[in-house]
């Protein structure tokens, strides 16, 4: 029987985002030189929310950009053709800045590898960090997150579904799967 | 999609997707590092049986920006000059492991034949007087970025329609995307079966949102289609006076190469309304999108 378990509900997601925003502020001396890069699709609204929270907490406005990593994927040949989204450099660029990559789920690490390649074509940041809403494990590459909203132990067969109000109308993280 | 042989193969959704991908590719062309790793390890062969500057260079730049390996093959100075057939050349390319073949050929239909002989994707870069689908796509892209839309626009394609593969592909694609196309030229050069047509340029201009001038293709003309170059340019050439009859927002396009003074005056070609330079720039982005579409994923 298939099941879907809610791991983070409506208010939880925003509280987790608030905590990550505080952690970024703490680790980067008040977000000096920080720019946020949201990875399409759901990393983009998350990055915007982090910027909004940092502005509310510290009064500092952080540049936000978006990164579409489709053209940098290493599995293009294994999958059918993917639509390409837009990459928008944050105002002021990323050279010499502290880039915080933002994504919804950290899984194999391949998306982040592709994102690191994409970043190196855009410029040369001083530091690159990674913030994710959910870390579900099962890494295939030596990659880790600097800021994790929630660690969710999962089976490989399970799916983590992140919904965000900006895209899906509701904030929610669900674990879906069929028991073995 | 495996091959790009004809603009007729593209439905509105696929064509729009190519234009959208091209817009993302255009952003890459504006960066300091104009390169993506997307087609790393893939081989693209440019197989050109006809002279070409902008199309060949444009495809080469597009493939290189996607990190593909590019092999340029021109019929002059190759085994074709020694009499090798297209089929044997195709087998040679097959044996070399070409993932995509970009072909320009003086015979209409040559890319269709080639598609049956090679395993890789075939892109038609102009076949005889038949089709030139990537030119139509870059024209559509240029229209969309200048006018904001294609659907509902009045497009006049003016000149030597009979010999023009650009015109054929554009009629197919722009109609698919919702534009209303009118072909304009002397009766000897406008085939009536392609769609709406007119022999009177001055009557069409006041209604046109886009005026696309075609090159008079002297090399393909075996008969005399009009009395003299002077008469042609007086009736169908685009000069400043005619441009002033167009609506203020209307644009002037030309696929190049131009016969300045024949179908278009320098005054018009170099005016802000002319998109001729943009068309060349957009060509690279659109061809990147086409290569990505054909080579970027697995074919089921």
What does this structure look like?
The complex is a heterodimer of chains A (180) and B (300). Chain A is globular. Chain A has 4 helices and 8 strands. A 5-stranded parallel β-sheet of chain A has the order 3-2-4-5-6. A 3-stranded antiparallel β-sheet of chain A has the order 1-8-7. Chain A has one domain (9-156): 3-Layer(aba) Sandwich (Rossmann fold), CATH 3.40.50.2020. Helices cover 28% and strands 28% of the residues of chain A. With 180 residues, chain A is an alpha/beta fold. In chain B, the strands form 2 sheets. Chain B has a 5-stranded parallel β-sheet with strand order 7-6-5-8-9, with helices on one face. A 4-stranded parallel β-sheet of chain B has the order 2-1-3-4, sandwiched between helices. The model of chain B has no long low-confidence stretch (mean pLDDT 93). Chain B is of the alpha/beta class. In chain B, 38% of the residues lie in helices and 15% in strands. Chain B folds into 2 domains: 7-128 and 280-296, Aspartate/ornithine carbamoyltransferase (Rossmann fold); 133-275, Aspartate/ornithine carbamoyltransferase (Rossmann fold, 3-Layer(aba) Sandwich), CATH 3.40.50.1370. Chain B contains 11 helices and 9 strands. Chain B starts with 11 loop residues before the first helix and ends in a 5-residue tail after the last helix. Chain B is globular, with a radius of gyration of 19 Å. Chain B has helices at 12-29, 54-65, 86-95, 110-117, 133-147, 165-176, 201-204, 229-236, 240-243, 266-269, 276-295, and strands at residues 43-48, 69-74, 100-105, 121-127, 154-158, 180-184, 197-198, 210-213, 251-253. At the A-B interface, helix 3 of A face helix 1 of B.
Short description:
Chain A is an alpha/beta fold and 180 residues long. In chain A, 28% of the residues lie in helices and 28% in strands. In chain A, the strands form two sheets. A five-stranded parallel β-sheet of chain A has the order 3-2-4-5-6. In chain A, strands 1-8-7 form a three-stranded antiparallel β-sheet.
């Amino acid at each position: 029987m298939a099941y879907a378990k809610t791991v983070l509900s409506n208010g939880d997601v925003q509280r987790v985002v608030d905590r990550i925003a505080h952690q970024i502020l703490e680790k980067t001396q008040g977000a000096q030189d920080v720019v946020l890069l949201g990875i399409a699709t759901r990393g983009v609204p998350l990055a915007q929310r982090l910027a909004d929270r940092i502005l509310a907490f510290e009064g500092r406005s952080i540049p936000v950009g978006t990164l579409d990593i489709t053209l940098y994927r290493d599995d293009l040949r294994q999958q059918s053709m993917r639509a390409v989204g837009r990459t928008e450099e944050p105002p002021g660029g990323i050279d010499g800045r502290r880039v915080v990559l933002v994504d919804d789920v950290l899984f194999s690490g391949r998306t982040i590898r592709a994102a690191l390649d994409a970043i190196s074509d855009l410029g040369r940041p001083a530091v690159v960090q990674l913030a994710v809403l959910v870390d579900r494990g099962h890494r295939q590459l030596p990659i880790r997150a600097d800021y994790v909203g929630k660690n969710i132990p999962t089976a490989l067969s399970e799916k983590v579904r992140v919904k965000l109000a900006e895209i899906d109308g509701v904030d929610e993280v669900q674990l879906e799967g069929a028991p073995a | 999609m495996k091959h790009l042989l004809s603009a007729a193969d593209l439905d509105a959704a696929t064509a729009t997707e190519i234009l959208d991908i091209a817009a993302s590719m255009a952003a890459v062309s504006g960066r300091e590092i104009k390169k993506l790793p997307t087609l790393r390890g893939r081989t693209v062969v440019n197989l050109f049986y006809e002279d070409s500057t902008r199309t060949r260079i444009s495809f080469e730049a597009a493939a290189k920006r996607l990190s593909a390996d590019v092999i340029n093959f021109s019929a002059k100075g190759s085994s074709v000059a020694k009499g090798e057939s297209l089929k044997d050349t195709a087998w040679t390319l097959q044996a070399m492991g070409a993932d995509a073949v970009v072909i320009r050929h003086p015979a209409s239909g040559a890319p269709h034949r080639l598609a049956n002989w090679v395993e890789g994707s075939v892109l038609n870069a102009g076949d005889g007087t038949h089709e030139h689908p990537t030119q139509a796509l870059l024209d559509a892209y240029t229209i969309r970025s200048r006018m904001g839309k294609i659907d509902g626009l009045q497009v006049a394609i003016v000149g030597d329609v009979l010999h023009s593969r650009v015109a054929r592909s554009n009629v197919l694609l722009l109609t698919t995307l919702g534009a209303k196309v009118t072909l304009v030229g002397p009766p000897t050069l406008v085939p009536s079966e392609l769609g709406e047509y007119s022999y009177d340029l001055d009557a069409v201009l006041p209604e046109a949102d886009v005026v696309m001038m075609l090159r008079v293709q002297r090399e393909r003309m075996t008969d005399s289609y009009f009395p003299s170059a002077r008469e042609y340019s007086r009736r169908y050439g685009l000069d400043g006076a005619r441009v002033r009859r167009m609506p203020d927002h209307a644009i002037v396009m030309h696929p190049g190469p131009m016969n300045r003074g024949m179908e278009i005056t320098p005054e018009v070609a170099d005016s802000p309304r002319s998109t001729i330079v943009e068309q060349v720039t957009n060509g690279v982005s659109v061809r990147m999108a086409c290569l990505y579409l054909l080579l970027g994923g697995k074919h089921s």
